[in-house]
Amino acid sequence: MIEVLTTTDSQKLLHQLNTLLEQESRCQPKVCGLRLIESAHDNGLRMTARLRDFEVKDLLSLTQFFGFDTETFSLAVNLLDRFLSKMKVQPKHLGCVGLSCFYLAVKSIEEERNVPLATDLIRISQYRFTVSDLMRMEKIVLEKVCWKVKATTAFQFLQLYYSLIQENLPFERRNNLNFERLEAQLKACHCRIIFSKAKPSVLALSIIALEIQAQQCVELTEGIECLQKHSKINGRDLTFWQELVSKCLTEYSSNKCSKPNVQKLKWIVSGRTARQLKHSYYRIAHLPTIPEMVP
What stretches pass through the bilayer (predicted)? Predict the structure, then answer.
């Protein structure tokens, strides 16, 4: 597939993919730092995987509440994990750190007219710290990520891989893959710290490959193999992460897994506050359930 791309659009997509692959290793969380978080005991004094995952679910709730793009959420998670993998953060400060990373991502990705005021963001998030606290933490985060807010994310790879596959399919077969479903699966994976140890390209291709297997789209298998080869992804790595993604999505679909709760944000906004908020970002989205497969 990759070797026979002929359309201008395909060539542009391939150029974008090459650029992302070249930049992929930059601005990623330190795996050794993430492992320390995973191994930490939950004693109320140290950052743990459970606390990190709960914080990311809160950020996903905010993303849904404001109707922000998945790219914004993906970047917020990247910033949070980069910071947590470098710094020893006390649990009591996690909310401020998480919201600071989220606000940086929002200001980096979203249109200026859709960026909420810091006061509104804090109120809706139900935190008690001040705008000054948030701004101070923002500066600390920026310093620790070397002022490099932009990063290569799994969402960017997901978009490109999906577009390359679609571009080389006959028009009548382009509905085989549902991008909304793939997005929802990525969001679920972001809520588990283990997936921040995967290369963004590997995580994105694992999600797509698993979905293609689930839907038994045999005609797309060759495309996945070509993308894997072009991206220089080891077969064992791809299989390893596919298995973890499959396990995560199975658990996420069960009742045992806690999911982001937009309702808890909805009730905190009084009528008076709602009138003061910009209409463009007072949008209540549905919980991020994963769409059903098309039969």
Answer: none
